[in-house]
Amino acid sequence: MKVFKRILLALLALIVLLCGVVAFTWRNEIATVASMKLLRDRDDSHKDGAVYTMHVKGGFYLDDFLAQGGAKNDAELINFVTNKITKGLIKIDMKDPEIACSSFTATTTDGKKLFARNYDMTKTNTCLVFTEKNPGRHASVSTVDLRFLGMDANKNVEGLMKKITCLAATYAPLDGINDAGVACGIYMTYQGGEKTIATAQETEKPDFTSTTLLRLILDYADDLDEAVQIASAYDLHDSAGTSYHYMVADASGRSAVLEWVGTTDSTDNDGSARELVVTYNDMDAHIGETEAAADYQVVTNFVIQPGYYEGSPAEDKKGADRYERLYEELGKTNGIVADEKAAMDVLSIVGRRSWNNDDGNGITVHSAIYNLTDRTVMWVPNEHYNEPDAEFNYALKAE
Q1: What is the value of pTM for the model shown?
Q2: What stretch of H or E contains 279?
Q3: Which of 29, 53, 98, 121 is the most buried (most CB within 10 A)?
């Protein structure tokens, strides 16, 4: 009997030890999963997905990701995230992203610098992801489309396994702001004429995929210049067989559109030959806009480089109508808006549920106004622009 008790006690001690090891090894992941909360439920009648918040504990292995040279494609990224975040026990299925939208920068009447963004796609669940400050890295808040992580848009994210899968959200931001006042967004460009060709640079530089560039900017960029340096230091490998460009802005009011381009749209068929071109907000004459627009900038879903669409049909310039409408509206006040609410009103003008939406598919999933001066965000889901219970406001502690 004593031998049996000793064996039982030894087994219990072993179980306690193993539980302690698991708890220590997964401590950040456990805390992050526990933090995931439903912010706003689905409304299928309005094509609204659910909205969640998640507060990420720890550094989510981003330094390790950089140490291995990034990832050259989505499969490599998935392998890294699966091995690091779930310790190889749970497979994470990250879907190919398709990222439409509209963005602009503006200044409030009291001098605050703003970055505005509509995310246009189809019905989906989203998550506001908060990351904490780590050594040499910034805290941030960003928005993630949970469909990219395999979440069903017509179901809420319930159950431990699904929430563990959402740990990969840190590697799939669509837009966001860090505590240095740097904001960034990503947008499709459909480059390559009739068949969109993904950018796939092949040099000696390390690699990143579409959303991981945005992740690096949010974590490491102190200002616009550092964001451009980060983009210049890596080979870009676009996801989903499509192509993207980015807008970045900082608290000084400077902004830029980052584009990877070759020749013209109809002949830009070699993704490995594309090079980064940076268009700053004081280069308006270069892209055919008025000099008065130098203090603000607009981006939608076409390449803004002059001559890029020479010889191509007008419909190749995706989102040109929204682009022109935003410039028209901002031009009335030279890019000055009263406050964040006024900037949100401008975004509402091109919300997809009411804007030229003949196919009935595209909707605006979320709208965000990032105050780069105050390091705050005003966030509205699914075009509920004038509903107080659908407006969410958050602040990051400025450095």
Answers
A1: 0.90
A2: strand 275-280
A3: 121
